[in-house]
Design goal:
Among the domains are: about 35 residues; about 250 residues, Rossmann fold (3-Layer(aba) Sandwich), CATH 3.40.50. Strand 9, helix 12 and strand 10 form a beta-alpha-beta unit. It is built from 13 helices and 14 strands. About 30% of the residues lie in helices and about 15% in strands. By secondary structure, it is of the alpha/beta class. The longest helix has about 35 residues. The strands form three sheets. The chain has a ten-stranded mixed beta sheet, with helices on both faces. The chain is globular.
Length: about 500
């Protein structure tokens, strides 16, 4: 009897302790949300009825999708919650027609206080060439907008592709859109847009699918699913920029945390961050549901990989090319290196890594994550092509490219690029954007219409001096080495057009 009682006590503890720890974590986060995140603004609660919902709108074609999006933005412009004089007068709000953000994006209206500012590339857009030589679908990332794909879209368009840049549901309007968006909504609009983009290319012309961050996850999932679905055209290539592949394990708690927000007074528990909304193309506030949905997207990609592997279809996957920063504080770099390229075999698949600045002067400050790459380079031969963008040596700011194809040694090629002073790494936010991007460029003089680019605002001061953390103005927002991405895209497109 005594041993049975001991066993019962042990089992009770095994059950109670994990539940207690989980409850403490959930309650602790809820308390943090209520006490530390600050008050909700109208754009944190506005529910836009014309947003795409897969359960209601999955039957639409691309024209119908655009018509629905048009009604959505009309609803946004007419939202009474966003038309108060206080918001209209706000000098740094993305929603104010009188803000410097409105002038920066070139969409400032006549200053009427009964309207709101909506920057132009928050919506789905197409770039149409004079002579169509193929097509592409590009998908932006979580909390971003189609603008994040503009530089890559223009490069593909210059090569003769008809480029469709899709807006994902929940994005480009108000941060509250994050509360109701689902992976099912995203996947449904990707299918609609992919069918449209694929129809624009002749059978002998290239059709690319690509994306940034979560958009990369959705693009790759769609490409894998096209292997077994005869109704979907397989892309010629898959282009990924900082794809979201693996998230911290703590993300699994978000389902429970978000469920508490129905309680009175706990509405802020819907949010992981509540910040002023000054960025015209990216939400600063971040909802718990956003983590839930991107976690669902990464899980869906894993399942798609596993099913294709079991069915013996992975060797038919079109070439996958990914650009990834070695240090990525948003999604990490190991996911794309192991979970994606660990499954891909063949020189046609290429991972391009942007290393950190390895000048000797920075060596003593190097983090554990920064030190990962040397270990990668010493690892066993990879079954795919690998390119590393890195310093020539630890005494030089000059940048070179080191390439290795399966079964071969490393080759080196010089570039005309060098690390700009004070920049130690690229990173998740930066890869997609030109260094002189009018909104996010870091180069002095970047900006538009007399307003400085957000990426060029390098601010120093005491913590608490601004309503935003100073760290938001030190993280790099554009890529000093974007020309290497552009050059690789040109090479791929030229090769595909010759076939």
């Amino acid at each position: 009897m005594v041993p049975e009682r001991r066993l019962t006590r042990v089992l009770r503890r095994l059950i109670i302790w994990p539940v207690a720890v989980l409850a403490a974590a959930v309650v602790g986060f809820s308390a943090y949300a209520v006490l530390a995140l600050g008050p909700l603004a109208p754009w944190h609660t506005l529910d836009l009825r014309q947003e795409f919902r897969a359960a209601r709108d999955a039957h639409l074609d691309f024209a119908g999708l655009l018509a629905l999006e048009g009604r959505l933005f009309e609803e946004l412009r007419g939202a009474k919650e966003l038309r108060s004089g206080d918001i209209a007068e706000e000098r740094s709000s993305r929603f104010s027609p009188r803000s410097w953000i409105a002038r920066l994006t070139g969409a400032a209206n006549d200053g009427a206080s009964d309207n709101i500012h909506v920057a132009p590339y928050n919506r789905t857009f197409e770039l149409v060439p004079e002579e169509r030589r193929g097509s592409a679908l590009l998908i932006h990332g979580l909390t971003d907008a189609p603008y994040s794909m503009l530089a890559l879209a223009r490069r593909l368009h210059a090569g003769g592709l008809h480029v469709v840049v899709l807006r994902l549901p929940g994005h480009g309007t108000v941060p509250a859109g994050q509360l109701h968006m689902t992976l099912q909504d995203w996947r449904a609009v990707v299918r609609i847009a992919a069918r449209h983009a694929a129809s624009l290319a002749m059978p002998n012309q290239p059709f690319y699918v690509g994306g940034y961050s979560t958009g990369g996850t959705l693009a790759l999932t769609h490409a894998i699913e096209s292997l077994a679905d005869e109704t979907l055209r397989q892309p010629t290539r898959v282009l990924l920029v900082s794809p979201a592949i693996e998230l911290p394990r703590i993300a699994v708690l978000t389902r429970i945390i978000d469920a508490l927000a129905f309680l009175p007074g706990l509405e802020a528990a819907h949010w992981q961050e509540i910040l002023p909304e000054y960025d015209p193309y990216k939400y600063n506030s971040f909802a718990v549901n956003s983590t839930r949905q991107v976690l669902a997207a990464t899980n869906a990609l894993t399942r798609a990989f596993e099913q294709a592997q079991v069915a013996g279809l992975l060797d038919k996957l079109p070439p996958v090319i990914a650009w990834q920063s070695v240090v990525d504080s948003t999604v990490g770099a190991r996911g794309v290196f192991d979970s994606v390229f660990g499954r891909l075999v063949g020189a046609q698949h290429e991972l391009i890594l942007f290393d950190v600045n390895r000048l000797a002067v920075f060596r003593s400050l190097e983090s554990a994550r920064s030190a990962d790459l040397p270990g990668v380079l010493r690892s066993l031969q990879r079954p795919h092509s690998l390119t590393v963008v890195a310093n020539r040596d630890d005494e030089s700011e000059r940048v070179m490219m080191r390439r290795r194809r399966p079964g071969q040694g490393w080759t080196e090629s010089e570039t005309d690029l060098a690390w700009p002073r004070s920049i130690v790494s690229v990173g998740h936010l930066a890869l997609c954007f030109l260094p002189d991007d009018p909104v996010y460029g870091f180069l002095p003089g970047s900006g538009a219409n007399g307003q400085p680019a957000l990426g060029s605002l390098f601010l120093r001061g005491e913590a608490g001096a601004l309503s935003l953390p100073l760290s938001m103005f030190t993280r790099l927002r554009s890529n000093p080495f974007f020309s290497l991405i552009a050059g690789r895209v040109d090479e791929m497109l030229e090769a595909d057009l010759r076939r």
